[in-house]
Amino acid sequence: MTGKELRELVNKGMNPIVEFTESVEEIEERFDKGMRAYVTKVSYPDNSDCVEVTFEERDFSEYNKNIEKPNWYNNDTEKYDLKFSETKNALNYKGVISFYEMENEELCNFQIVENKSLKLFSEYQNSNEQILYVKWLENIVLGLK
Hints:
- This protein is an alpha+beta fold.
- It has 2 domains: 3-113, no CATH class; 114-145, no CATH class.
- It has helices at residues 3-11, 61-65, 89-92, 116-127, 133-144, and strands at 17-20, 36-43, 50-56, 72-74, 79-82, 96-102, 110-112.
């Protein structure tokens, strides 16, 4: 999936769960390989071949704490032996962070996690209905009553 395709997916109402790959550790110090988050927004910055991807990880905070690597500097030990959740930065962290991906290249810093929501969204896309995803879901729920 490219950055552009991800943007189209999110603009249609889907907030996919992603799992970060090892390469994310080179561009973003908050996430480590295996951590998860929702993609909540994908936008185009001015005059760029990139998309800005916004992630929300609050629902995964406990899951992510178990995966965190101790790669933050500790003034007391003078070593990189702190996990992010043990730092002062964590006190002000709201669980939302953004970084850039190339618009027309395959995503490399994370991959979408297959789940039931994504499969349901695929059904919506295949239905070719000209309504928003939320309305499509409402129609299904109302049909069950």
